[in-house]
Design a protein that fits this description.
mainly beta; Lipocalin; single chain; 170 residues; eight-stranded antiparallel barrel
Length: 170
């Protein structure tokens, strides 16, 4: 009888421990990443101008770097995401984890865009991102870039929703 009650107690504790598993630990760790995709550039023509607005679809420069995801320690499924692009900027944002998905808070990012007309645009874009974990070590983020850019007295609206970041846990 004593062995049965010990076994039953152990099984109950094990069941309770598994029910309290948080989603954040699935994502915690250090990753290497690569980002690629394209955006549309649509020229903003001032009202009254008779010129035809230019429109481009351009690939964003492939970015590689390191990413760290760490728990915030508030007992919830919130994490801190730090992305360090090789030779570029550092982006810090918060995210929420649920099951095998991660939802990043919108953040700003600097990006260089090059068109076929020798036009180089450097701008701050608003980035929206959600992702999913695959096989406990591969994180795929689907990103949307939105914003405006200026160069040579020309303004462009920037939008891209087919940008992907593939991140592999180190």
């Amino acid at each position: 009888m004593k062995k049965t009650s010990i076994l039953l107690t152990f099984c109950c504790l094990l069941a309770l421990a598994s029910c309290q598993k948080k989603n954040a630990p699935l994502f915690r760790g250090d990753y290497s990443f690569k980002t690629s995709g394209s955006v549309a550039l649509d020229e903003i023509v001032p009202e009254g101008d008779s010129i035809e607005p230019a429109s481009y679809t351009v690939s964003i420069p492939n970015e590689i770097g390191q990413m760290e995801i760490s728990a915030l320690g508030n007992g919830k499924d919130s994490v801190l995401v730090v992305m360090n692009t090789m030779g570029g900027e550092v982006v810090v944002t918060h995210a929420f984890c649920k099951d095998n998905e991660i939802f990043l808070r919108d953040f700003k990012k600097n990006t260089l865009l090059f068109t076929g007309d020798s036009l180089t645009l450097k701008n701050d874009l608003l980035v929206k991102a959600t992702g999913q974990m695959y096989e406990d070590n591969t994180l795929i983020l689907n990103m949307t870039y939105e914003g405006e850019a200026e160069s040579n007295e020309r303004s462009f609206k920037v939008f891209g929703d087919d940008i992907r970041m593939a991140a592999i846990r180190n």
